[in-house]
Amino acid sequence: MSREEVEGAGANPGAELGTGLGPRLGRSPARQRLHRAKELLIETVIRVCGVSAVIFVFGIFYFVFREAAPLLFGGLDLGELLTSGEWYPDSDNPRYGAFALIAGTLAVTLLAMLIAVPLGLGAAIFVSEFSRGRTREILKIVIELLAAIPSVVWGFIGLVIMNPLIIDLFDTPVGLNVLNGAILLALMSVPIIVSIGEDALKAVPDTYREAAEAMGATRWQVTWRVLLPAARNGLLAAVLLGVGRAVGETMAVLMATGHSVNVPDSPLDSVRTITATIASELGETAQGSDHYRVLFVLGSLLFLITFLVNLTADLVIRGFKRR
Amino acid sequence: MVVQHPKIAFRDLKVRYGEKTALEGINLEVAKNEILGIIGPAGSGKTSLLRVLNRTLQNTPGAKVTGDVRIDGEDIHRMRDVSGLRRRIGMVAPLPVGLPMSVYDNVAFAPRMAGVTDKKVLDGVVERCLRQAALWEEVEKRLGDLGTKLSGGQQQRLTIARALSHSPEILCLDEFSIAIDPVTTMRIEEVLKELRKHMTIFLVTNLVQQARRLADRTAFLLLGELVEVGPTEEVFGRNPRDRRTFDYVHGIFG
Structural domain boundaries of chain A? Predict the structure, then answer.
């Protein structure tokens, strides 16, 4: 129904009944034009806000890709980049094999998620379904506090606390490795998974809980059989945002994973991630050099990885919806 | 009126939500296999009474229940196994709540929670309950569809089927016919007459005539007070014991 119809419908009964609504609803033509212009202005502003996200994403991708393109299409051996572990960008005969960096990133992220997903979802379920009153409020505040700790502080904890602990526990010479970085990343992702996961569970109508409980389901059965399936899209989003945080995190992994280019065989091996490489090397390269450009190629790769993660998530969610 | 060996007995039941009193000193006994109609205007505590019975009221923040509620002489608030208690009671809410799963899974939910895994047994339960709720013919071919995709009236019958799925001793119907057309309502009413052989039924209804058709006795609740409970004919007749009952039933107020 258009606005004219609404106003027309509103004005007549108001005028007939003499409720005092009539004059306000039946605006003069000039005021109506003003009103419409205002409406249009607000609509435009809001539309720009909405579209700006798209502009930013494409803008960032464009600038990163622009720096990478001359090398990408001019002499870079993409096969070598993706499969060779030899990363000697500073040598006289530079070789750009990023396989170890990719493997390092994936290893740390994967292990981090193995820790963070059960921990985060478990905590979300506990906060949302099994805790009440003060316990819940305190938990929520503390978990949100965990999200506010800067990543350099996490890196410091990795260096000073976790490093000797891992050396003692696993009897290895170095405690700065995949495990160390993964634990830090896990702890950094958990607050995100908890707070978004809890929102997803809270969004499930209470009537579902009540209906299921009224049929004699225990609280755990209600959670497992009704709430988790009902909230699965939100929970998946929570996990993927956690993954996003883990893939893109730089400072903590830079400090805690040992910074050695290496394809890991075990969680106790030191590695270096893509992000850490970009962060530590970009400042030392000459702008426009091959080394400079290959770091942007790595940036584009990182971009591609996060894009694929999100796309997969989107497709999975759509798949669920169709069912 | 004193019921011999009551199935359910409320003694001096009080329910408060914070400062607000929802039920005030309810004394009520219900016989086995009786249909008890409960009438009264909105906010008179009808739903609270049912939620006391299956102890879902305790989930509501601020709700406080005092007094004594017994099923077969056993104090429900002393029962350790709340889920066990709830399995003895079927509950149908006024607005249908289809759980976000298939029609089949909705009805099979309670038996499964109680530990039934045999597919044949579950199939049998699902068909029996859907037939009893007058829904079987309509959903026979689409048992795998999401329960929430059914129409409002079908969903309501689905919740009735669900409430019957764990063979409860007590069935609580809270204004079940709000979303159902009159013809289907009549079919379900026929089913209720049949079901009473096996269970005790609480029938909360705003349709005064529905209580009249089905209930053996009728209770009239007003602002948390049990004004009167008696044989349905008496409550709806010319001379109920309380003037307010007469006024309500005959539409003079409320």
Answer: 3-74, 99-322
Interface test with A, best of B86, B101, B159, B170 (most A CBs within 10 A): B86
* Res A15: pLDDT: 43
Q: What is residue A90's three-state secondary structure?
A: coil
- Asked if A249 and A188 count as a contact pair (C-beta separation under 8 A), the reply is yes
Answer yes or no: is pLDDT of A7 > 50: no
User: Which parts of B114-168 fold into alpha helices (H)?
Assistant: 119-132, 136-139, 152-164
Using 50, 70 and 90 to split pLDDT, how confident is the model at A24? low
Pick from B56, B89, B99: CB nearest A208 = B99
CB contact under 8 A, A216 and B59: no
User: What whole-number distance in Å separates Cα of residue A258 and Cα of residue A209?
Assistant: 48
B161 to chain A: closest CA residue: A215
Share of chain B residues as helix, strand and coil, in percent rounded to the nearest 5: 40, 25, 35
* Contact indicator for A25, A7 with CB cutoff of 8 Å: yes
Pick the CATH number of A99-322 from 1.10.3720.10, 2.60.40.10, 3.30.70.980, 1.20.272.10: 1.10.3720.10
pLDDT value of position A3: 43
Q: Please give the residue of chain A at the shortest CA–CA distance from B165.
A: A215
| CATH fourth-level superfamily of B1-88+169-177+200-254 | P-loop containing nucleotide triphosphate hydrolases (3.40.50.300)
Nearby residues of B122 by Cβ (< 8 Å), 6 or more positions away: B108, B111, B112, B116
Cα B243 from chain centre: 27
Tens of pLDDT, residues B104-124: 999 999 999 888 999 999 999
Sorted by where each begins, the domain ranges of chain B are 1-88+169-177+200-254, 95-167
| C-alpha pair distances (Å), B250 with each of A119, A132, B210 | 61, 46, 14
Query: What does the pLDDT average to over A41-52?
Result: 94
